[in-house]
Design goal:
By secondary structure, the protein is an alpha/beta fold. It is 31% helix and 18% strand. The protein folds into three domains: 101 residues, no CATH class; 42 residues, no CATH class; 177 residues, no CATH class. Strand 9, helix 10 and strand 10 form a beta-alpha-beta unit. The longest helix is centred in the middle third of the chain and has 19 residues.
C-alpha cells in the first residue's frame, strides 16, 4: 500500500482515490461501509484511514476519474473511518504507511522497548490527560509537545517569557497581557493593532487563543504607525515565539494558495524597506481553521507560483501553517531558501 501511495503521488489530485474492499463475505461490516468512499488524494481522510485498517485487512485504494464518481462528503468519510478503526485502540493501523514511510507507527505497543525506562509508565510523571489509559498514546503526545526540546531549555523559555510578561504588563501601549506560568504561554496586544468584528479578525483571535493554549508566545503588533509624511506604514501582524510575521487565514479551498503567498511576499518587501526596520522579516503564518483546506502540496505549489511571478526580490523564506485539526492544533513548517 505504501508503494501504491508513491504511484498516486505522481498524479496528485489529477484523479480522486477510491476505497475498495475485497467484496466477499469475509469483509468486515465496518470496512464494507468504507467501500467506494471517494476523495482527492490531498484530503486528510487518507492520512488516517488509508488501508490496511486492521489485522489481515485486504482493502485497497484505486485511482478513479473525477467525472465518474461523486466525492464523498469529508465529514461522512471521517465518521466511517473512525467506525472502521474504532477497535484499533493501540493505533497500530491509524496512519498512512505511504506518507510516513514506515511499516508501523513509531509509537505502538509491539515495537517499543523503552517502556521500562518511561517515567509515565512507572508513575513518576503525572499527566493531565492520558487517552483511554494508553500509555504509548500519552508518550506520543508528550514527545510531540517537547520535540527537539530539553527540560533545561523549556525552563529557560518559561523564564524569558515571564520577564517579557513583566515588561509588557507595565507598558501602557499594550493590553490583554496574559502569562501562564505552567506552560510559559504569553499573549499581548499592542493598542495600535487593527481590530474588528468581521470573519478575518475573528479567525485571528481564534488563532491567538489556540496558540496560547498550546504554550506559545504571541504578541500582536502595532499596525497604525505612520511615517513622516503621515501615511500609515506597512506592518506585520504578530511576533510568534520571537519571530515577526504576518497572518493569512484561509477561508476558501483552492487548488493552491499562490495569490495569497505572492501578496504576502510583496508585503514583506515593503515592511523590510522601512527605515526603522533593522532586522528583516521573512516568515508568513497561514491559519487553516478548516483542516480540509490544508495540503502540503498546496503550499509548495503556491510558493513556486509566487517565485515564478515575482520580479522583485523574494523575501519570504519560511511559511508556518497552523492547522486546526481534529487532533488539536498542528503546526507545519515549510522552509524555502
Amino acid at each position: 500500500m505504501a508503494a501504491k501511495w508513491e504511484e498516486f503521488q505522481e498524479d496528485g489530485d489529477r484523479y480522486n482515490l477510491q476505497y475498495r474492499t475485497a467484496n466477499d463475505d469475509r469483509v468486515r461490516p465496518e470496512h464494507a461501509a468504507l467501500d467506494r468512499v471517494t476523495l482527492p488524494m490531498s484530503d486528510p481522510f487518507w492520512a488516517e484511514y488509508y488501508p490496511p485498517n486492521g489485522w489481515n485487512c485486504r482493502c485497497t485504494v484505486v485511482q478513479v476519474r473525477k467525472s465518474k464518481y461523486p466525492e464523498t462528503p469529508h465529514d461522512e468519510a471521517m465518521a466511517l473511518g473512525e467506525q472502521a478503526t474504532g477497535k484499533d485502540t493501540k493505533g497500530i493501523f491509524h496512519f498512512n504507511p505511504g506518507i510516513q514511510q514506515k511499516t508501523v507507527p513509531d509509537y505502538n505497543p509491539y515495537t517499543i522497548r523503552r517502556c521500562r525506562d518511561c517515567d509515565i509508565a512507572k508513575g513518576n510523571l503525572t499527566l493531565a490527560y492520558i487517552p483511554d489509559n494508553e500509555l504509548c498514546a500519552a508518550c506520543k503526545l508528550v514527545h510531540k509537545c517537547f520535540e527537539g526540546k530539553t527540560r533545561k531549555s523549556e525552563l529557560k523559555r518559561i523564564e524569558e517569557n515571564k520577564k517579557l510578561y513583566d515588561k509588557l504588563s507595565k507598558d501602557k501601549r499594550y493590553k490583554d497581557v496574559e502569562f501562564d506560568p505552567e506552560t510559559g504561554a504569553l499573549k499581548a496586544t499592542h493598542l495600535g493593532h487593527n481590530d474588528g468584528q468581521d470573519a478575518g479578525f475573528a479567525l485571528e483571535k481564534k488563532l491567538v487563543e489556540k496558540l496560547y493554549s498550546c504554550g506559545h508566545s504571541i504578541i500582536l503588533c502595532d499596525e497604525k504607525k505612520k511615517g513622516r509624511n503621515g501615511d500609515r506604514l506597512t506592518s506585520l501582524d504578530m511576533i510568534l515565539d520571537g519571530v515577526r510575521m504576518d497572518i493569512k487565514s484561509i477561508t476558501r479551498n483552492k487548488d493552491f494558495y499562490g495569490s495569497a503567498i505572492r501578496e504576502k511576499n510583496k508585503q514583506l518587501v515593503k515592511f523590510n524597506a522601512r527605515t526603522d526596520v533593522h532586522e528583516a522579516a521573512d516568515t508568513l503564518c497561514i491559519y487553516f481553521d478548516d483542516p480540509t483546506m490544508f495540503a502540503p502540496e498546496k503550499i509548495v505549489k503556491g510558493y513556486e507560483y509566487m517565485a515564478e511571478r515575482t520580479s522583485r526580490e523574494i523575501q519570504l523564506h519560511h511559511i508556518i501553517c497552523v492547522v486546526n485539526s481534529a487532533k488539536g492544533l498542528e503546526i507545519k513548517t515549510f522552509d524555502f531558501q
